[in-house]
Amino acid sequence: MNWLYIILISYFILSISNLVDKIFLSKIVTESIVYAIWVSLLSVFVVLLLVLDVLFNRATGLTSSSFGDLSFMTPWFVVLAVFIGVLFTLAIYLLYTALQRGEASRIIPLIGGSMPVIIYAMTFWYEPLNASRTISFFLLVAGTVLISVTPGGKHPASMKNGTYIALGASVSFALFFVLSQYLFRSQGFLNGIVWPRLGTAIALIVLFTNEPIRKKMLDSLRHLSFRMRSIWVTSQCLGAVGFVGQQYAISLPNVSVALVSALQSTQYVYILIMATLMTVFRPKLLKEHLSWRVLLMKLVALGSIGAGLFFVSL
Questions:
Q1: Of 47, 56, 242, 288, which one is least surrounded by beta carbons within 10 A?
Q2: What are the sequence ranges of the domains in the chain?
Q3: What is the pTM of this model?
Q4: DSSP string for the chain
């Protein structure tokens, strides 16, 4: 399958998961650190399924799984992988903290608007974009920024704090993606996605030694009904699938990690559409501030993102 289709499908899946995250953070699970721990824990679990796939294939006489091969790495790459895993947990925590303090259709695009620029600043010297992809990159980033900006009005202090935290998340995610691509291209996809979970597991162990955090984590889902737990688990499984798809696209040769991050603007389009529908039909679950001026700006953003998709497909 073409890498562009893989990433568009992955971002659609991630948009569903992110919108459910926003609902849970604002209405049900109120501690972002607790939510980040659960998400990181499930990411470790999902990747363990890939390890089981490898072990199954080896037990049946196959040399590798459909995702590649898993092997021991040199100490340098192990240390790098551990750092990437810890960085993932940090970025997730900052993302959910920002989400908790701001609107889903503003905070997430803000991260996506700054993250591609940071990534391209890190990678342009060894992975420059050609003319059509450069045009696409800036159109996608411009569309993302337009979606995230609300003209006029004053933002509450919590929104400003959420903005600063979101920028911290974008820096963390940018470093995570750049280093992940380096690991993928040096050690293969399976090594690049499995070994960093060791770092994530270490971060979880350290956090779990904190008694207040441990208590909040264990108590976080007890009050939820079976239906709500099922929705949450399903959402996180979808997020894991979208994450693996995104990482796989980054691991492919001749695919720019900066352009992949810029294409995340399509995820914000999905979020905008779903958040708007929920504001109209289910405002008790999720309410976004809408006005004709805001909608007009976001329509312009959709046009910019659409043009960006056209140029990237050339």
A1: 56
A2: 3-312
A3: 0.81
A4: --HHHHHHHHHHHHHHHHHHHHHHHHHT---HHHHHHHHHHHHHHHHHHHHHHHHHHHHTT-SSBTTB------HHHHHHHHHHHHHHHHHHHHHHHHHHHS-HHHHHHHHHHHHHHHHHHHHTTTS---HHHHHHHHHHHHHHHHHH---SS---HHHHHHHHHHHHHHHHHHHHHHHHHHHHHHH-HHHHHHTHHHHHHHHHHHHHTSHHHHHHHHHTTTTS-HHHHHHHHHHHHHHHHHHHHHHHHHHSTT--HHHHHHTTHHHHHHHHHHHHHHHHH-TTT------HHHHHHHHHHHHHHHHHHHHHT-
